[in-house]
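Me: Here is a favour to ask of a fellow structure person. Could you put it straight underneath, so I can go through it closely?

Assistant:
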Amino acid sequence: MILVAGGSGRLGTLIVRRLAARSLCVRVLTRDRKRTAHLEPDGVEVIEGDVRERSSVDGAMVGVSTVVSAIHGFGDIGHVSPASVESPRINSPRSIGSSSLWAVGSNVPGSNTRR
C-alpha cells in the first residue's frame, strides 16, 4: 500500500493517478474527503485526516509500505504552514514532513529510500 499525503491536490492527483494506472494499491490522506471524488474511478482508498495530527498519520499508515508527500500550497487556510506540518506534536518516525518522499518498507523496487 502506498500512502499519498495531499493526494487530493493538483500534484497529488497526478501522482495518485500514475500509481493507480500501474495497478498499485493507493491510499490518500486528505483533510477533505469531498476533494477526492475525482479519484473514485481509480479505486483509490481515501482516509480523511490531518498530517498535523498524530492519530491521523498513525491510522493512515496501517499496512503502508511507502509514503509520498504531495503536501504543498500552504497559505492562510486554517493556519497551515510547513512548520505546523513538521510540528513537534507529531514527533514520530511515522510523521510526514512537508517535502519528503520516503519508503518505510524494505522491498520496494525502484523507490527513493531514505531511513
Remarks:
- The first helix runs from residue 10 to 21.
- Residues 2-103 form a domain with the Rossmann fold fold (CATH 3.40.50.720).
- Confidence is low (pLDDT under 50) at residues 88-115.
